[in-house]
What does this fold into?
Amino acid sequence: MSGLPVYRWRLAPDGLATRRQLRALGLRPGGQEVVAQLERPRSRRGPLVAYLYRIDLARPVRPMTARRAAALAKANAARRWCPSCRRDAGYVIPASLGMCTPCAYPEQCIAGTANPAWRVP
It folds into this structure.
């Protein structure tokens, strides 16, 4: 995003906000373009970058409808089901494993060396 003004951390002018700051105000960017970027320097790595939007052009967040809430609950519930043992794991299954912890590491669960919460009843 070349050509954008770059501000140092905590030195952005009034009237600009990041996505998270807009959300805290009950707003969303609403299709507007990024107007500036904020950089936070870090040692040994490149700076953290956050994009800034104009608050006066931001739109209100769309309200959560009952159908949208139901779809979100269904999607989150699907992330908890293990495809191997077909049980609700009680937590969101890590994408790196692709299955619940007892299915991914059965030898640890049988030997009893794993976390007791991992054991399948």
